[in-house]
Please model this.
Amino acid sequence: MDIKELLNEILLKDKAFIHLPFGNGKYDIYESVVVTWIIMAIVLVALLILTHGFKVHNISKRQAAVEAFVVWVRKMVGDMLGEEAAGYTDYIVTVLIFLGVSNMSGLLGFIPPTMDINVTAALALMSIVLVEAAGIHHKGTKGWLKSFIQPMVVVAPMNIMELAIKPLSLCMRLFGNIIGATVIMELLKHVLPFALPVPFSVYFDMFDGLIQAYVFVFLTSLYIKEAVE
Amino acid sequence: MLEFSAINIGCTIANLLILYAIFRIFLFKRVDKILLQRKEEVDEATKAADLATQQALSTKKEYEERIALADEEKEQILADIKKQGYDEYDRIVSDAKKKGEQIIVEAKHNAEVENERAKEVYAAQLTDMVIDAAAKIAATKHSSADDKELYDKFINEAGVDNE
Model:
């Protein structure tokens, strides 16, 4: 199997999971959405177990770990967002955890939802809506419109183009990295099905997945920070 | 997989919002609730500690004021006692002086009385001796030598008696 065939298999495979009897396949639900539902269910169950019976005093190790994680991740994201945009921390943390779990879902035998461009597009769309909403909320509609001619009027077309470029770059970067990692892993499996894929899987499924989640969140935070300044 | 599907993008956005709600309700709010309760307890403890510190400072100030007042009272009492002591001393000295002067006056008076009495005794003795001498002269025949002898005898006797 050459690379072209492999890419065709990965990219052009029919990913429709739930076929609806109307719309001629237009309204079919993709596997990525179903995997996202499974991830959501797993996360919900995990949260219910982890946050059950929280106490103020004499806390368990589980509670201490959860509290420490929440404080740490909020601080990390809060530092990226800055003081003025601190209100968006919880949403960004949600995206970070979702991306982290999604990118690593390959370890559980699922196809990572982020391998579907619709998922990364939805994430990027949400990010850019949040960025512009934050800008309007903090600067007012007038201030937000004025920001397009900053620092000078000449750059206004580029600033307007950025409205599309930013989400597109976010979407493509995440999708490209995850699909790239998957292609490399498939190639490695074809080269040597035993032993060799294991260390690479640790890198591509775990380390790279978390890095890409961090990069997506970092850039979104940066855009929000810029929008509110 | 490279086709954009509005329904799947919409589903993913809905999923993301639901996931955000799940995280808010089952993680952030629960952790925040515990952290807030803990913070309230710490704030209360801090407030109580501040109150205790203020009370301690107030008590210390009151104590210092009392000490200052007691010092003033002590000084006043000492001054009063000193004054009383000096007054008593002056009174005793004055009384002793008066008593001494009175004793001296009395002693002088007694001495004068004694002196007068002695003088009267001497005078009486002298008179007796003169009478005695006169009686002896009258009783005996006498010459100028006898007179001289009598005079000398009288003078000697008078001298011995006066010593």
Chain B has one domain: 8-162.
